[in-house]
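Annex B, item 7. Sequence and structure tokens for protein A, then protein B.
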Amino acid sequence: MRLLSLGLRHLHYLPSASQPHSKGREGEQACLSLVNSCTSLSHLTQLHSLLIKTCLNSNLLVVTRFIAIASHLSAIGYASALFSRTAHRDTFLFNTMIRGLSLSDHTGHQGLSLFSLMLRDGITPNKFTFPVALKACSGLSEPIVVPQLHSSIVKFGFNSDLHIQNTLIHAYGSCGDCDMARQVFDGMTKEDTVSWSAMLGAFVRCGFSGDAIALFREMQAFGVVPDEITVVSVLGACTDVGALGLANWVELYVEKQNVKRTIPLCNALIDTYAKCGSVEEAWGVFNRMQERSVVSWTAMIDGLASHGRATEALMLFSEMQGPHGVSPDGVAYLGVLSACSHAGLVDEGWAHFREMQERYGLAPKAEYYGCVVDMLGRAGLIDEAYSFVKEMPIEPNPIIWRALLNACRVHGKLEFTEQITKRLIASDPTHGSNYVILSNIYASQERWGDKARIRDMMSGKGIRKVPGCSSIEINNTVHEFVAGDKEHFAKHIEMYGMLEEIGTLLRMAGHVPHKREVLLDIDEEDKEGALRWHSEKLALAFGLVRTRRGTPLRIVKNLRVCRDCHSAFKVIAEAYEREITVRDGSRFHLFKGGSCSCRDYW
């Protein structure tokens, strides 16, 4: 009703159907004012009727603004319908419609189709067309589209436009082509902060965190002051490699350069510190924030959960809901369910799983069901977990089956493992871990012929096992080690002596090697030797030699830490009086004084 009354007040400016040109300019401006005041789809439909009555539904300026507002109100279907009924279209109308489709979920293909239609209709794109068309490429699993748009950019003479170049770098990074992103970046005659941020973000998205950190240092050498987006990307790179020292330096740099500590930047700091092994520093950032978003609370809850501090995570979750009145979203509940899973709090986990549905109306997706399966599996409730999977209202995805499979393997429920793994291979035949798990199951049962058959199958499909890889940061430099990489380790002669020293220490402490972790058909002595060359032990030996006594060590491993290394690290931490933090594929382990923060529950 508000819009109708507003329309009536301006009605004397609008042309009538019989006099479409009377006071045309005034009517156009009045109508644009009405369009800009729309705050809901119902307002928009009322105004659309007014446009038709006054013949302004064919005015390109009005229609273009109308479509922009409809897209902003998430009424993309309504906007598309109006666009299709517009007989005469220009470049600005196409740009607006493509932008609306690029900003909506699952409509990127439609945006690109519209760009093709624009060219077929003989309408020339301008410098505003290509950024929105490139935006439509984000999330599409068709990397060929970006090079095609790049060719059109060159054809129409916009390859030197700064904004288009920046968007092109981002688009190449989004589709995983960092080489082309870097080629565009290196070919720029003049970069701005956005250019550096786009290239840095491309490296992070492609998993080249080391290159991202190197580019950030290069950026400083050129005297380019980073903005908030750049710093968030750098922190993402620090998170990937577990570079706590570099994260500390970045925070100091932020203060020195007076980069505004926005909520997203503080959230990134919380996430980075927690994932780099310093939950206390994450706490510090969280407590100093004057304003917090739900993401701030979620990042802190998730950080506590991954460090095994479930009680604190649940208390913070209650504080978030209670005194602060922040309604949790689905991501917050994932953190809570993860905390319950890592601590064995099955009853609390069930309670929160029901609460998210009954109190907040959050419908569980696959990842929530996966958390419940993981929680039950870690607690050894395999039969209950299997029944839960079979009774789920959604089709279990491979992640859910792997969670159940891992629990079966850890708790020795081998009657389920082969059946589940074969199901995984059938449903996801290109995922290497499915074959590795089945191969390891056969090896644990000494079924060497079956193990060899699976390995041959992997070779035939071109699937390779992901090697164990660990990294350690020393003096702001990240050093990486791969399991069994004796050739690389030979460059550091002193490391051999440390490995021998650790082996002697473990034998004297009564440590019994977990030879069942070596799933190879070799003799017992060779199995013990193979355990010595696990990547986390190589990183630890390097850290012990290269740091002063008492210095905490932080190691990041790409896979789950094995039982032998877990047991050995407890002995080593006590003997060398060190705090050793290991971030593996699922959580953090803090080894101190002969024990681990996970309490052997992982």
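Protein B:
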Amino acid sequence: MASTTDAPPLMLALRGTQGVQLQYGPPNNQPVEFFTSVKVDSRFMVFSPHGRYLVYHTPTGVQLIDIQNQETLELGEGTVLVRDAAFSPQEGYLVLWDAPSKKEDNSCTVYDLKSRTVKAVYSQLETTWKITWSSDDKLLFLMGKDQTYVFGDPDFSTPVCVPKNNKIGEISISPVSKPYHVIVFNPYKSTPGFVRLYRYPSIDDPATALAARSVMKEDQVVFKWNAQGTHVLFLAATDVDEKSYYGSSQLFLMNTSSDSLVISLDQEGPVHAWEWNPNGESFCVIYGYMPGKTCIFNKRGDRVHTFGASQYRNGLMYNPFGNLLVLYGHGNIRGALEVWDMTHMKKVCSHDAEYMTYIEWAPDGATFLVATTSPRLKVGNKHQVWSYTGQLLLDQPYAGELFQVCWRRAPPGMYKPPDPSVELGKNFTPNEQKKAAAYIPPSMRNRVGIVGLEPEAGASVHYAAQVQSSPGFGQGYKAGIPGLTMDEDAKKKAKRKKKPKTESEGEKREGDEGTENTGVPRSAPQNIRADHAGYGHRRPSDSHFGSGSPSSYGSYPSRYPRYPPGPPRRPSLKTEGSHSTHLRTGNSESQGERRPSQPDTEKRTPKPKPNKNAPRPVAASPERLAESDGDENQMVSSGDPERDKKIARLNKKLAEINVLKQEQASGKVMEKNQLDKIKRLDSIVKDLEKLQLSTILKKK
């Protein structure tokens, strides 16, 4: 915590079903000695701007606590019906609002806290009872039902100014005095409304306005001034829009130098949050449809920094010194917090805050409050205090419903701003959120040897040894995952699902048991299987097989077991005049493999060019192909590639029909599409004869 030596300890106030409580903040976290907890129902609880007073409601009336002098004041039985309260900026006046039985009855009372007397009484509605004060408590702006009044100190009973030309929907005064700057919103029914900036006392004549901006179809306008009172942001929003159910919003910027502009937002959607930095030099905006963008703008409306899009942000709050910013999600957004150092634009920490409904920085600027309150959530109510470094200082559940929790405020200069670069050090690593691990099915957990899967913590070492010593580990097996054995049930299921091979597919090759005689599973990549079969590039030291040592098997990726090689795979070579002729040989020279004794510069025999004077081969007849059991080795080339392709396709159909006829002869029940295929035999034979005839005529 960064504070001066004479700074008072942090203080928290809680209001809920257990009444009103006052306690110290971390590290004490104990109840305040001079305040006795009141276990009564309370409608409101408010701290004064500088933290001297605390006002709250009880069934017997409003209680005012002078924390500085440690005394309690009762404002009388006439305050039993009071619904809410507010202080003036300099803590000179207290405004109480109650709900009268009749509209014409007085409902707003102004108390002078110095003389402890009633200063003025007004008749105000619930939506307009909060009085707008100047920063020095000298001016009071009161918005009535159809009229706005301005009162001046010391007489708050007679207005000093009554604007009559234009109706005022919203009004706000700059936080600095002399001169006073006032911004007002003038709504109109049939024409666009206007937002105008004036210099007091002229707040009614449009000709004297310093700046003006028209707003179209806006239901409400909200104003926010910077600390110096020279620039003001205002958000014009509608409740319902033609494009979106959530309405539309637009952000504007004005200054006392008569400049007015629209803040350019590069993503469509509403403005979720916008705040001035307490230093008054920049402001932050969260806008756009989720995931929204978060950007920093300077006083001229230029974008100077972008935090990027995030689906967990819809709120922001600066600490009182403006050097730390917390971005958070609340409401229907997951509770996630990010604390940023605004001096170096560096993320300090981030953590989750589930079910968060309220957040507030402490006056020291180094800790902040996170709470889950009612009526948003009526169960699991609690409040937490976090340090800006990510340390949880307090986690206190609440027995019942917690309606409100807030910090006691402090006057400026009471605390020193925290310095993240000093307190965290140069080698500080931000507390990033852990990324969610990839989902692993329960049946695949704690397995050893599975590609891309590490054993979970606590996996049995005996289990790993048992898997490695199992018969399927490190040998040729039918399972497609290296290192994973197949249990008996899986083997039975695999046998039941295995489709019977037809006679056209040929007999199984000798020694082929699912690993292609190489000891490598079929699920391995082609280049790994080719290396075992003798196709891939291999170092001379890797060409001596059969030694059984791991080095003799070549260097293969670690995720595939190293198996002793089997007999070389039979290749298929395409030669002129034949299609996919299978060579029944295991000669490594015919496979294009170089022996270690052969020099690297040896050139392969070039492919001979076709001789035009050589006799042309004759295509096979349809009768021979239909009776040849689909053997493509008997077909010869006709000399025309396109014609050869058509003949090959017809020959393939004849072979398939021949297989179907044999199955039909053996008594197998044929399906409709298979019977239709057999009926097309004559048309296929005729097409094949035409191709042969056209080939002969063309050659002649």
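Comment on protein B: The first helix runs from residue 420 to 424.
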